[in-house]
Amino acid sequence: MNEKECSMKEALMFTQRVGQLSKALWKSIEKDWQNWIKPYDLNINEHHILWIAYQLNGASISDVANFGVMHVSTAFNFSKKLEERGLLQFSKKENDKRNTYVCLTEKGEQMFLSIMEEYNPENSSAYSAALPIKNLYGKFPELLEMMTIVKNIYGENFMEIFEKSFSNIEDTFVEQNGQLKHKEPAPMK
Amino acid sequence: MNEKECSMKEALMFTQRVGQLSKALWKSIEKDWQNWIKPYDLNINEHHILWIAYQLNGASISDVANFGVMHVSTAFNFSKKLEERGLLQFSKKENDKRNTYVCLTEKGEQMFLSIMEEYNPENSSAYSAALPIKNLYGKFPELLEMMTIVKNIYGENFMEIFEKSFSNIEDTFVEQNGQLKHKEPAPMK
């Protein structure tokens, strides 16, 4: 087997490995995510938009599309639906009149925070599946290989928002009686 | 911060980490996969069914649903469409009259092998994104954390088929003139 042959097969096998694993993992996470937000009559894209708008304290449609990994038209259409339900409002920024920004209304923020407060790790298969790793190593897997691959596909900016979302959770929520509660009415205001 | 509080936040942050990463990774892989099979007028589920039928040298609808991570009804309906196109045939096994099995027709196998032969790693974002890791460590990332999580969600049997698919590629394909070619008309017959 020459080097070229080896490398072509290696490439196919890696593509297949990462493809099968990410399909299987995402399908499981998707199901749990849908169940989590079902009582609020939201789909995953809509919830993701609320999440991004909350995290960024207002986001452009292009931010929503990038960080939510959806088409710009999908981001726009679902944002419009959220606006019609009074959960999101559209605006322009003083220093950027060209882009449309979305931010949570009071009602949208309340809904977002209620959903977070109802988060229950026991309903997450990926969480349960990762527990044996946590029990062995003392912390959850960092998924560094997966993170590096995602970073190399989507860029540094994507990862910055990704990391920022964790410090927001860290800063914004406390646990009371086995439930997450937000500390303040809104982050970074 | 007490231990419980820490663990609840840790759980949410891990769930979010694995959720965002797997959504982003899968959406990229899904796009590349769709582009790869587009010339054959197949969707991802249909191609996945052909792939599983090829790998297992005939598979029950329940195998297809399990290993393809799709509902049984989805597996059945798309298998029917493939049958109508003359790519798949339904049968019963001598030693198992209760389950419906699907296997590739000659035409289905030809199509599957053509698609494999047209595989081009340069069209895979995940492959390109993993190359820096290969260049650094001398091999592609093994994604062991991701694999363990998927194993704990879907079970040992799922992983056995998963691993088997790699040895099938190893045994069945050679590289000629920068393209994958299958060695024999069909594997394991």
Automatic annotation (TrEMBL), chains A, B:
One MF annotation (Gene Ontology) recorded for this entry: DNA-binding transcription factor activity
Top-level division of the source organism's lineage: Bacteria
Ranges of residues in domain HTH marR-type: 11-155
GO biological process: response to stress
Record keywords: DNA-binding, Transcription, Transcription regulation
Cross-referenced NCBIfam families: PRK13777.1
Protein's recorded name: HTH-type transcriptional regulator Hpr
Taxonomic source organism: Niallia taxi
